[in-house]
Amino acid sequence: MTRDPEPLLLILSSPSGAGKTTLTQRLLQAELGLTFSVSLTTRAPRPNEVDGQDYHFVDRETFMARRDGGELAEWAEVHGNLYGTATSEINRARAAGARALLFDVDYQGARQIKAKLPQAVGVFILPPSMAELRRRLEGRGTETPESVDRRFAQAQVEIEHYPFFDYLVLNEDLQQALAELKGIIHAELCRRDRLAQRAEALLDE
Questions:
Q1: Strand, coil or helix: what is 29?
Q2: What is the per-residue pLDDT across 132-188, written as a single tens digit (0 to 9) for each?
Q3: Residue 167: what are its φ and ψ, rounded to 5°?
Q4: C-alpha count within 13 angstroms, C-beta hemisphere, residue 42
Q5: Whether the predicted pLDDT of 2 surpasses 80
Q6: Which of 181, 186, 185 minimizes the C-alpha distance to 23?
Q7: 8-37+99-204 in CATH: which number?
Q8: CB 39 within 8 Å of CB 112
Q9: Edge-to-edge strand list for the sheet holding 167-170
C-alpha cells in the first residue's frame, strides 16, 4: 500500500493591500484539503483577528527565544514587527493528513522556506496597479497616513522580488484570482513527482 504524498507546501506572498489575506481565507473555505500555517508575530492583533487562528501573538522576548531555540522554519522583521513560522506547523499538517499547507509570508520568509524546503511552491499576488494598491491601503481605515506611506514604499520593494516566485497571480478581480490559485493547487497536486509512487504501484499489481 502506497503512502499519501507529503503535503504540498504552498507559499503565498504579496505586498500589503494586494488582497492576499482575503484570497487565503477563500482558499481555506474551498474544501481543497488545505490547512493554514499559523505564523507567530509580535505585532498587536487587528480587529477581528483571533489568537491561534490568524496568528500566534507573542511578545518579542518569546519570539526571540523560539528563534534562538531553532524552532522557526523562517522569520523576518517587517514594519518593525517580527513574523515567523514554527517548524511544528509542517509536522502538524503532515499528521493531520492535509493535502497542502498554506504559508502566508513575505518574500524574505518565502526565500528562507524555499532554501530549506526547495519543493515548496511560491505564488506572488500582484495588485492591478500601484494607484489601486494605495487606494486599498487608505481604504482600510486602520492605518495612519505615515503607515500608509511606509507600507506603500515597502510594497514597491516587495514587488521587485517577483522573479523569485514560481507563479504570479494578478488580483484585479477577486473571483478570477481565486480561480487561478485553485488551478495552481490542483496542477501542483497532480505533478508526476508527487504521484509517481502510486503509478508504480499500479504497474506492480
A1: helix
A2: 888 888 887 777 888 888 888 888 999 999 999 999 999 999 999 999 999 999 999
A3: -135, 150
A4: 18
A5: no
A6: 181
A7: 3.40.50.300
A8: no
A9: 34-36, 100-104, 8-13, 121-126, 167-170
